[in-house]
From TrEMBL:
<feature type="binding site">
    <location>
        <position position="331"/>
    </location>
    <ligand>
        <name>substrate</name>
    </ligand>
</feature>
<dbReference type="GO" id="GO:0043103">
    <property type="term" value="P:hypoxanthine salvage"/>
</dbReference>
<feature type="site" description="Important for catalytic activity">
    <location>
        <position position="273"/>
    </location>
</feature>
<dbReference type="GO" id="GO:0005829">
    <property type="term" value="C:cytosol"/>
</dbReference>
<dbReference type="GO" id="GO:0005634">
    <property type="term" value="C:nucleus"/>
</dbReference>
<keyword id="KW-0378">Hydrolase</keyword>
<protein>
    <recommendedName>
        <fullName>Adenine deaminase</fullName>
        <ecNumber>3.5.4.2</ecNumber>
    </recommendedName>
</protein>
<dbReference type="InterPro" id="IPR006330">
    <property type="entry name" value="Ado/ade_deaminase"/>
</dbReference>
<feature type="binding site">
    <location>
        <position position="249"/>
    </location>
    <ligand>
        <name>Zn(2+)</name>
    </ligand>
</feature>
<dbReference type="InterPro" id="IPR006650">
    <property type="entry name" value="A/AMP_deam_AS"/>
</dbReference>
<feature type="active site" description="Proton donor">
    <location>
        <position position="252"/>
    </location>
</feature>
<feature type="binding site">
    <location>
        <position position="61"/>
    </location>
    <ligand>
        <name>Zn(2+)</name>
    </ligand>
</feature>
<keyword id="KW-0546">Nucleotide metabolism</keyword>
<dbReference type="GO" id="GO:0009117">
    <property type="term" value="P:nucleotide metabolic process"/>
</dbReference>
<comment type="similarity">
    <text>Belongs to the metallo-dependent hydrolases superfamily. Adenosine and AMP deaminases family. Adenine deaminase type 2 subfamily.</text>
</comment>
<dbReference type="Pfam" id="PF00962">
    <property type="entry name" value="A_deaminase"/>
</dbReference>
<feature type="binding site">
    <location>
        <position position="330"/>
    </location>
    <ligand>
        <name>Zn(2+)</name>
    </ligand>
</feature>
Amino acid sequence: MPFFLFLAVFFFLFSLQTPCFYGFLLFTTERHNTTQAMTTIYPISEQKRKFLHELPKCEHHVHLEGTLSPDLLFTLAKRNNIELPAHFPSSIELCNDRYEKFTDLQDFLDHYYIGMSVLMTESDFEDLAWDYFVKAKHDGLHHAETFFDPQGHVERGIPIETVVNGFHRASQRAQAELGISTKLIMCLLRHLPSQDGLKTINDAKQFYQDGIIHGLGLDSSEKPFPPELFEECYALAKKNCPEIGLTAHAGEEADPSFISNSLDLLKVTRIDHGVQSYRDDELLKRLAKDKVMLSLCPLSNVKLQVVSDVGELPLRKWLDYGVPFSINSDDPAYFGGYLLDNYLAVESRFNLKPEEWVQITKNSVDGSWIDAARKKQLHDEIDRVHAKYRDVLV
């Protein structure tokens, strides 16, 4: 009886064409769309997990200052007699809790720059980077191109030499003791005046010429500071060191024009993040044609609310267009996931075929600033791992 009553009411409303009827349709349509938008979470088999773990990985988007774990942060604060601000979390537990509550990029950066204040000596910077390399090695890292922000330290009175020498020592240890090849990428903070960036580039000139620093990047708050503000900085860096690798954060929160302008004005050959590229099909075609690699940071994008779930990233569209991308951890101590965590997050949302993972990791190798011999070595290792698991991954 209730069913027939429902039908009677339904057709009565239909005949009247009342707002109530249209509200009913809107309600059911919204429910349908919400259900469609829900992200599927795929189980990961033990064999698939082992395959992803063993795949040789390159990381192109990790900020060394962003690997500062709460444990190391408080250790260094004590070592260097640093008194943190009263509003800063007072314990490891409270720090971890704060890391779960970033509202956006700027909220994260405000906390991030306070954390940096505990880094004072060469040993501090070496300990920080070494801690990252050890963790990443366990995730299958073979090659790392790591960011660092000298301006954030120099403005605190820390000489640029202290920063670079500490990170360089850790990089040399990673090569010698862990077999990880490394490159250092100096980033400019886009919220600081471009004139400050020019000075930083000149201060670092000898490090570039000595082969200690290999690239230039652009990070920090994106939307208020478009790439055209730093055109002169990038031109100077290229003049000082013609073989320099150029990249820039673009299209994390800002529109696709930030990506296009970084390519056209800054002459970068790589884009960090690049999430918003999906909104411009012509740009996607350009990225694919020119083999411009995007350095994707899945868990970071969720943490900073670029997307609400990893499954919302346009990863399938990039694959369909042939846009190369690598998977990275960004600021892993703050975002709850190192390199393998990000690989597993992607797998749990996209259920990629082993062959697609091979293509992603090989594109990651090809987008690295390493010579042909090292690329072949990594390609061969990827093929070896694929062959090992090919018959058990169906």
